[in-house]
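Quick one, tokens below. Sequence please?
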């Protein structure tokens, strides 16, 4: 069986290899084995491989946060899944042909949901959903501001917010992406800069929620757009710099900075809460409210090319691995 492994931290396409490993174990009591059909490459995957994001403590280690596939074997006591069921996996180490995991780590998804979308459902869509729900009581007509607006989470924020009647101000690094974001429903798109707060207020007044994937000065610029008592939610490590808000923002304007990590958020609920969350997200995909464009797919033996592609700027969709061969 083939799987992807990294033996050291470093540039992802240079340190990851497709290797032959033992077959996935026969599932024991309360376990299932799944054949992985599609697995998205996320920024967090790249950061884990670089050693910049929480990941395996010991190397070498298998990689891969997301996975969609089908159940191929059941252990004793598993009665809520059947062989052939389509599942996403909440486990890691999913860049492999097959994995065996506790049944609690497998969530069945509707057959109407295509595999390439299912391969991207675990992390980004629920992150957008929870961040828009958990921090402020957003009402129709309210504004949310976010950076990294062209990212997968950024796109989902635009679409989920629109469903709520909430407007989005979207901060980007280049004017070239302004029109593409407007085309998918972004209400306002601005290029980042030290005067971002003044430009946002001139357009919309104030917002009370900001979503930050970058950290550093970009986080501070978002905070400058918020009304008194507003909240910046940081959920990403993209710049590698510490999150920044000024004493004036924190003390005078009572801006708060909070962190969001989906793993912690999911663990706040029981299994039924998790199942319900992914059923809700699946329906958003099926109904066309959110989408997840794919730029290219690669097999496991093309991992170097896949990771190099995933690390490029200017992409227009995810890079997805297909561990058991190209999808029909």
């Amino acid at each position: 069986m083939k799987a992807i492994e990294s033996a050291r931290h470093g540039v992802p396409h240079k340190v990851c290899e497709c290797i032959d490993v033992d077959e996935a174990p026969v599932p024991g009591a309360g376990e299932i084995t799944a054949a992985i059909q599609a697995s998205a490459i996320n920024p967090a995957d790249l950061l884990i491989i670089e050693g910049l994001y929480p990941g395996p403590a010991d190397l070498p280690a298998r990689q891969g946060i997301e996975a969609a596939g089908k159940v191929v074997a059941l252990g004793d006591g598993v009665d809520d899944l059947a062989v052939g069921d389509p599942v996403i996996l909440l486990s890691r180490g999913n860049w492999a042909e097959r994995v065996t995991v506790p049944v609690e780590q497998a969530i069945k998804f509707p057959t109407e949901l295509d595999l390439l979308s299912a391969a991207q459902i675990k992390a980004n869509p629920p992150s957008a959903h929870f961040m828009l729900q958990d921090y402020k009581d957003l009402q129709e007509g309210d504004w949310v501001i976010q950076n990294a607006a062209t990212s997968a989470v950024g796109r989902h924020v635009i679409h989920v917010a629109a469903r709520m009647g909430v407007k989005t101000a979207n901060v980007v690094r280049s004017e070239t992406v302004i029109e593409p974001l407007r085309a998918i429903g972004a209400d306002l798109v601005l290029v980042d800069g030290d005067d971002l707060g003044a430009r946002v207020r001139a357009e919309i007044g104030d917002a009370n929620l900001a979503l930050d994937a970058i950290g550093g000065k970009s986080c501070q610029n978002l905070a400058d757009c918020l009304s008194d008592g507003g909240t910046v939610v940081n959920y990403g490590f993209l710049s590698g710099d510490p999150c920044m808000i000024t004493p004036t923002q924190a003390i005078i304007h009572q801006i708060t900075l909070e962190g969001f990590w989906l793993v912690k958020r999911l663990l706040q609920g029981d299994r039924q809460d998790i199942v319900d969350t992914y059923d809700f997200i699946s329906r958003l995909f099926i109904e066309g409210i959110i989408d997840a464009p794919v730029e290219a797919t690669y097999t496991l033996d093309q991992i170097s090319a896949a990771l190099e592609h995933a690390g490029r700027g200017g992409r227009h969709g995810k890079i997805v691995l297909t561990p058991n061969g190209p999808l029909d």
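Residues 129-263 form a domain with the Rossmann fold fold (CATH 3.40.50.720). The two ends are 21 Å apart (CA to CA).
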